[in-house]
Amino acid sequence: xxxxxxxxxxxxxxxxxxxxxxxxxxxxxxxxxxxxxxxxxxxxxxxxxxxxxxxxxxxxxxxxxxxxxxxxxxxxxxxxxxxxxxxxxxxxxxxxxxxxxxxxxxxxxxxxxxxxxxxxxxxxxxxxxxxxxxxxxxxxxxxxxxxxxxxxxxxxxxxxxxxxxxx
Length: 167
Hints:
Blueprint: H1 5-15, H2 19-28, H3 33-50, E1 58-65, E2 71-79, H4 82-85, H5 88-104, H6 122-125, E3 131-132, E4 135-139, H7 140-151, E5 156-164
Antiparallel strand pairs: 1-2, 2-5, 3-4
Helix pairs in contact: 1-2, 1-3, 2-3, 3-7, 5-7
């Protein structure tokens, strides 16, 4: 099936994927934009899984103060290169995760960090399992993997801290 160039451009603008990947995804989904987006997302997540073991010695520290200054959060989001750390998408994700920490008050970064005997639901206390506050159909972990697939580097939340007046 021949794919319309404008459709490829639209998919590329939405996902940030390469032109050939967009064209292939549209061909495989018979021109269905939504199916193509899902296919590209799955491909990005799959490629991100391959990079999980790589070192993340670059990144940013991002802060978020909630209106009124009564709740704040600080997050260290790591990546492999300073080039990726300086991108707008990476910095926006770091800010959104800091906002997530301030709003949802997770205790641990991932499910692996949960201490033995902690009976609280993992999706409530592990940041990476929490529904993303800006898109509840995805978890924070899925959003991190999605960006990792898009930029081609391992990205991970290294640590976070949350402060609230009176807590």
